[in-house]
Amino acid sequence: MRKKTKMIHSGITMDQKTGALSVPIYQVSTYKQDRAGEHRGYEYSRTGNPTRHALETIIAELEGGKAGFAFGSGMAAITSVMMMLDANDHIIVTDDIYGGSYRLMTNILNRYHIHHNFVNTTKLEEVEANIKDNTKAIFIETPTNPLLKVTDIQAMARIAKKHNLLLIVDNTFATPYLQQPLELGADIVLHSATKYIGGHSDVVAGLVVVKTEEHANRLHYIQNAVGAILGPQDAWLLMRGIKTLALRMEAIEGNTRKIASFLESHKDIKHLYYPGLKHHPGHEIAKTQAAGFGGMLSFDVGSGEKADKILQKVKFFTLAESLGAVESLISLPAKMTHASIPKERRAQLGISDGLLRLSVGIEDVEDLLEDLQSALE
Ligand SMILES: Cc1ncc(COP(=O)(O)O)c(C=O)c1O
């Protein structure tokens, strides 16, 4: 099955009983047992729900893994995966990571003695240098939020294998349509499905896919024990979103390339971060490990004041947190998604007060270009 067909025909695509072409929303918490302890596959919806199961089956197939798991948010997914670690374990984390993941590492997991080092994972020698006796995992985001840094997944997998570490990849920006980390050697792939997978700014969700049966059993145990599950209505919305993921990603990518080339030649742009540009340091790796460069780009206009003016002027780029939807969004990471990262740390990473991030949607690109042009004036 080719990729576009997979988006439509993967997993459980219909109701076997009625032939309905959409999986029903099983709005249910519990299930009748035929005898005590004898059930028909479902006993309680925290443990398993048929609508959630259909979604979990689809995402497992799309990512090429053993099993999928759906959570109430991307952060619930990441937290549940981190629960696979034990106290006193150490994890290497991409330095330019989503602010919420940074907050989880620095303010929550540290209290349970799960230690971390933020490392520039685009530099293999830095990753190797940070491996300690108690290191158990490498957690990368690629491309990153908001600087679009690209980490070489295959190289990370080689390091992880050599040191017997888990390789966990946040694939939110790339989506399973463009990038499949498990095929490149990762052990676990996860998503904020709130973004491209949902695609319509109407659901908050997280998805995880694992490669082995052992990890599937462990994560299912955690999902059931911790209970951060996705509800059936939201699971249904994600399945609906997946059906158009290929079309949306292609339209989004086409628009993003045009916007990137417009911004690249604009005199007021100090830095433009987009892996599709030839001079982007991760361009060659992105080309080999993904089928496209995605729909996210960031650019520095030099000051917070200037960025603010642009935010006030744009019409078709809505000022909002989040990304990956059909409508174009604009944000100021330093004050929004990455406000939980201390200012000095943001400065070190290059997340300046004048850095704007675009999530390009599927509008007519001419309207988007005109909008940016007049806002930049
Ligand atoms: C790359 C990345 N990972 C994880 C998350 C967290 O996902 P959620 O907001 O669904 O909890 C986000 C949210 O913006 C994100 O951008």
UniProtKB/TrEMBL annotation:
Any one Gene Ontology molecular-function term assigned to this protein's record: cystathionine gamma-synthase activity
Cross-referenced InterPro entries: Cys/Met-Metab_PyrdxlP-dep_enz (IPR000277), Cys_met_metab_PP (IPR054542), PyrdxlP-dep_Trfase (IPR015424), PyrdxlP-dep_Trfase_major (IPR015421), PyrdxlP-dep_Trfase_small (IPR015422)
A matching Pfam family: Cys_Met_Meta_PP
Keyword Transcription regulation part of the UniProt annotation: no
GO biological process, one term: transsulfuration
The entry's keywords: Lyase, Pyridoxal phosphate
Listed GO CC annotations: cytoplasm
UniProt modified residues of type N6-(pyridoxal phosphate)lysine: 195
CDD domains tied to this protein: CGS_like
NCBIfam families for the chain: PRK07671.1 (NF005810)
Family of the protein in this entry: Belongs to the trans-sulfuration enzymes family.
The protein's name: Bifunctional cystathionine gamma-lyase/homocysteine desulfhydrase
Taxonomic source organism: Oceanobacillus piezotolerans
Taxonomic path: Bacteria, Bacillati, Bacillota, Bacilli, Bacillales
